[in-house]
Amino acid sequence: MRKFLIFSALCFFLISCSEEEPEFVDDKPSVKIEKKPDTTKKTNSTEKTSETKNPFRDEKPVAVISPVEAGQYNGKVVTVKGFVADVYKSEKVAYLNFTEKYPKNPFSAVIFASRFSSFENIEDYKLKDVEVTGRVSFYRGKPQIIVDSPEQIVIR
Question: What secondary structure, in 3-state letters, does 52-68 show?
Fold first, then answer.
């Protein structure tokens, strides 16, 4: 009888341990990105569509903020208003460093080389008060906005 009880307890233990439980439960709300239907007319390749001119036309900025506040708005479309202390441009990317020169800058606007041709002179933003509008993201621990269009940056 004793062997039967031990065997029963062992079977119960093995059965209860074998039930699968989820390994990870994501408690963060998922971000749903809806693709808007293309409402622009088909044009010849030399004309720009409104999608190219202003990628955030359907999303109004949630706030106008300083460069120091940008880290609090990860994933949100905002307008960052501040002083461009330095512009660094390489073959691959340009950084508009706000408030102070890199690495002390609290925020950067980033323009990739594939978009350089859209901007007349990126160096013109240096030592100017500007407003840049776009979605805040992080790169190496610092907040940034990736700029795709000159319409996202306004010199004040």
Answer: HHCCCCCCCCCCEECHH
Sign of the dihedral defined by the CA atoms of residues 98, 104, 109, 115, in that order: positive
pLDDT at 43 over 90: no
Burial class, 33, CB count within 10 angstroms (exposed 0-12 / middle 13-18 / buried 19+) = exposed
**Average pLDDT of the residues of the chain:** 79
Average pLDDT over every residue of 94-111: 98
- Considering the domain boundaries, does residue 18 fall inside one? no
133: domain CATH number is: 2.40.50.140
Average pLDDT over residues 145-150: 98
Range of the domain at 137: 53-155
